[in-house]
Every structure is written in structure tokens, then in C-alpha cells.
Amino acid sequence: MNIQNPIIPGMAPDPSIIRVGDIYYLATSTFHWNPAIQIFQSADLANWELIDYAIKEGEVNLRGTNTPAGIWAPHLSYDYEAKKYWLAYSHMVNMAGREFNSDSYAIWAENIRGPWSEPIYLTSIGFDPAIYHDDNGKKYMAILEWETREGYQAPGHIVIAEVDLEKGGIIGKWQRINHGFTTRGCAEAPQIYKRNDYYYLLIAGGGTGYAHGVEIGRSKNIFGPYEPHPTGEPIITSSPRHLFSLGNPDAGQFGMYNPESVMQKAGHGSLVETTTGEWYISHLMSRPLEGTLLNPLGRETAIQKMHWTKEGWLEMKDGSNLAKMEVEGIIGKDVETTVTHNVEDDFNDAYHCRFMTPYRNQEVAWVNTIERPGYLRIYGSDSFFSQVNPAIMATRATSFNYQLETKVEFHPDHYSETAGVGLYYDSNNWLYLHLSYSEEKAIPLLTVLQAKHGKRIEYSNNCFPVKQGIVELKLSYDHGQADLFYRLEEDWILFVEEIDVSYLSDEGVNGEPGEIGGFTGLFNFVGSVDAHQHDSFADFSYYYVKNKV
Questions:
Q1: Among candidates 144, 220, 133, 126, which has minimal Cα distance to 180?
Q2: Number of other CB atoms surrounding residue 502 within 10 Å
């Protein structure tokens, strides 16, 4: 049976896939979100379950992270000799002035669920590190060397060095390989594989936009020279037409949008072999809102079936290079959908592992299900414009059409104390249906606040008193439009309708048309603000996200 793409909908970019035994594991980027580095598990390549995060409980400081910095492009590998899982990743701390200050680290664990080791520093030469465990016992790292000099080809060279995974750092010097294997430019995310007598170097090319693709070259020496694929084109892409863009730092390449394809931006691939000797590449993808180039669900994870030619080159199973929304599954595996992307949490135990928080760590002191069993208690903190301590618990949006429902109990005593539900991209872009406090009436008040490109938008004409401080809230999202509802008794009451939230997308959050502003995607959330005394809290009795499509 066939596999339907995306295999992981919603924010799941830069997938790195491995197989250990009969089980497949996949890690993805998380940027400014905590816990960091999502880890998924599958037995059939079609159904993927989020099982854990690699970096959590204060192990990384993401406070003050500007979009789209943070934790980038984790690379997952397994050392069969030492029986250890390895994760290499970059922490992008600055992107101003095109300096791209990024520190890369490696962590290891004997179990995919951890505990993971303390970070081992590797390099600050660039980003997208990948570790290769050679059969001679040596360890190598491939990475993009970021170029900042005027007059030199951006974004830089792909480089490889032997790496010291015990002490950290590299052994010897970096060896510059190339600027990619096609004329698309913007080469990054190099990954090394070995088959027969050849080392194969898999590269993401064309920028992480509409010209994105997976490129490949090979060499009998790990340091090259590498021979490019004979077609001179990506082996996977959403836009197969030829592009010459060497030296062009534009990662968006909006002119390469393919109107004949549902899937866009296919690229940043990772290779895996099944137990049956079949080959697949996982890669990122996007699905724009119809009639636009906006991608609210961000960069998702897809997969393509591959095969090796008799000449020893990797290509898609159907012989083309156009990424497909439906691909052939593993031979002999019946593929049935077993993983739901709905979220249903009644908080009867610990909250669901899908909950993530921007910038800050999740700590019992401000969010827990302990103080009032059966409820998620959130203590209010900074405004949602803050990149330091927003009290937000969020889950990835995974559909273009869904409903988010919750019930909140909140008893504010100051107008700067709020609690409610909403949509969130980053600190400058969100929508918030919430209870606040009316000094005139001395009761909680339901209202709406919105952030768009850093501008505060108050819905001052939409206010409703909630005397008891208990209300059910619902947000209905439909292809970039949001309707807001509340319920006190039996029926839902429409509060605000048809709010344009299409800007909550990778391309819409910086207000500059024709540019990519972020690398994450839309999230749903519950949260609370207290810019008064930091002593108020909200209790949420349930959190449901029900996808319609």
C-alpha cells in the first residue's frame, strides 16, 4: 500500500532519519521552541509518533531568540560499534548582518529516549553539522562553512573534517569540498553515506524555499573530489525546471513555485535503507494556502521511495526527480493510518508531550497538573510580545481546517492579567481570545488581542462580561481565516468572525512580500499573562484540537 505525504504534518522541518533494528527514528528542527529537537518513531515509514525531545529541562537557553534562529537541523546517527545514538545540531544565536553566529554540538544516548549526554562542542564555522561513523572507526563531520566576505560565493563551502567525539572539536583541518552539485546554489545540510566503494554526499540545495532540492555526489575518498550526479540537477525537488542561481543568497526563490504540484519546497533529504533492502529519502516540504505563496503549516516532513541505478547513482523509484504526495510503501507492509494528529488532553495526568513553549523552559513552577489535579494550571507571566518568559503551552497546527477548544477558569484582579486561547507564530505575530479584567465592572471580561508584525491590535468593540470567570472558548481555523466562539451554557456563541490570520505563516510574519520570515509554522495555544504581580493563574480543564481534513 502507498504512503501519503506529509508523513509528519505541521512544523517538522529538516528531517534526519535512521533505522535501528526494525524501528525507524526521525529528528527535526525546533528553532525557538522548547523542549528542543523533536524525535519521532515509526515501524512502517507511514505512521510517525512523537516520542520525546532530545534537549529539555533547561539544557539550552533560547530566551531572546529572534525568528528564525534557535536550534537548527539536527542530524541523527547510530554508532553500531559503541551502540550509541548521536545527535549533532546547531544553535543559531545571531543572524544580524548576515554573520550567522552558530555553535554546533553533539550529544549521545544509549536509548533514543535518553538520557542524552551533556553537549560536546564541535565547531562554530557554520551550521547543519552531520556526523558519519566510518567503518574504519574514524568519525567525520560535514557542515556548511558560512561565508561572510564580500565577493565570495554565498552561502559558503561544504566542508568535511575528522571529528573528535570524546574531547570535542576537529582533528586536523577542514577540507573544502564544493558549493553544491547543481547550479541552484545555496548548498547546505551535507550528509555522508557509504555504499560499495563510494562515499556519497547528500546536500540540500537551492535554499529552503521554492527552489529547494536534494543533490548528490560521490567519491572514493571522503575528502573528494566528488563527482556530481550525471543529470546536473537535484534528485528530488518540487520544481524540476533548470535554475542558475550560484552565489544568490535568496533562499525564497518564489519564482520557482510549481503550480502543477501540491507539494512545494521539497529538499533537505536524509537517506535510510529498510530491512527489505529498499531505500527512502525523508525530506522537508510545504503546502501553500490556495492562491497564495503562504505556508502556515510551515515546513513538514515527507518521504520518497528511491532506488540505485546499475551505474551506482541514487534516483527516485519512478525515474523522475519530482517529489510526490503519494509514494509506494515498503514491500510486504500493510500501511494503515494508526496515528492521529488530533490532540485530546483532559489533564488527568501529566500534560501531553506535544505541548511546546516558545523561548522559555517548561517548569513546574509556572505550568503543572499537580496543584489542581484534572486541570492544567498556568501562572501568568510576560506579555506574549516577550521573548523571555511567555506563559504559553502550544501544539503544532497540522491541518488547514480544524477546531481548537478549551475551558478556562480565571479570576483576575487587574487589567494586565489575562488568560485564554489562540494562534501563535512568534512573539510579534499571534491572535489571542482571552479573559481580562474590567475595572469599571469589577468582573472578568472576554475580549481579543492580536499581534501582526509587532503591532498591537485591540478588539475594543468586542467585549463580553463573564461574571463567574469560567468560560469555554473555541477557535475555528479554516485556510487562513479564524472564527472565535465562547460558551457559557449549551450553545456556542460566535464572538468574532473571519479574522485574516494567513500572515501567521513562514512567508507572512515579517511583513515583507517575497521574503521568508520564519522557519517554523503555526501553533495553537493556551496561555496566561500577568504584568501585575505575577501571582495570578488560570486553570484549563481540557484542550482539544480536532482536525476536519
A1: 144
A2: 17
Distance CA 310, CA 230 (A): 13
Query: What's the CA gap between 483 and 402, in Å, rounded?
Result: 11
Q: How far is CA 261 from CA 156, 264, 343, 416, in A?
A: 30, 7, 29, 47
pLDDT of 226-250, one tens digit each? 999 999 999 999 999 999 999 887 7
Q: What angle do CA 279, 282, 285 make, to 5 degrees?
A: 145
Chain mean position to CA 120: 23
What is the DSSP secondary structure assignment for residue 454, as one 8-state letter?
A: T
Look up residue 435 and give its DSSP letter: E
Q: d(Cα 397, Cα 477) in Å, to the nearest integer?
A: 10
Evaluate whether 519 touches 355 at the Cβ level (below 8 Å).
Answer: no
**What's the CA gap between 244 and 475, in Å, rounded?**
44
Distances (CA, A) of 3 to 46, 119, 305: 6, 36, 10
How big is the chain by its Cα radius of gyration, in Å? 24
Q: Contact at 8 Å (CB) between 245 and 211?
A: yes
Chain centre distance of CA 377: 26
Distance, CA of 100 to CA of 155 (rounded, Å)? 10
Handedness of CA 149, 155, 156, 160 (dihedral sign): positive
Rounded Cα distance, 255 and 247, in Å: 17
Distance CA 41, CA 334 (A): 17
Cis amide bond preceding 225, omega within 30: yes
- The pair phi, psi for residue 161, each rounded to 5°, is -150, 155
Which helix (H) or strand (E) segment is 421 a member of? strand 417-426
β partners of residue 55:
36
**Contact (Cβ atoms closer than 8 angstroms) between residue 36 and residue 56:** yes
Burial 355-386 (b: 16+ CB within 10 A, else e): bbbbbbbbeeebbbbeeeeebbbbbbbbbbeb
Kindly list the distances between the CA atom of residue 148 and the CA atoms of 176, 263, 376, 522, in Å, as whole numbers in the listed order: 16, 32, 47, 31
Rounded distance, CA 144 to CA 179, Å?
9
92 strand-pairing partners: 70, 102
- Could you tell me which residues come within 8 angstroms of residue 152 by beta carbon, excluding any fewer than 6 positions away? none
Nearest to 339 by CA among 298, 272, 398: 398
Q: Please give the pLDDT value at position 333.
A: 84
Residue with cell 528530488: 236
Neighbour tally for 70: CB within 10 Å: 24
The dihedral over CA atoms of 460, 464, 468, 471, expressed in degrees to the nearest 10, equals -100
pLDDT tier at 512, thresholds 50, 70, 90: confident
312-367 pLDDT, tens digit each: 999 999 999 999 999 999 998 887 777 889 999 999 999 999 999 999 999 999 99
Strands (E), 253-313: 264-273, 279-286, 300-308
CB 143 within 8 A of CB 135: no
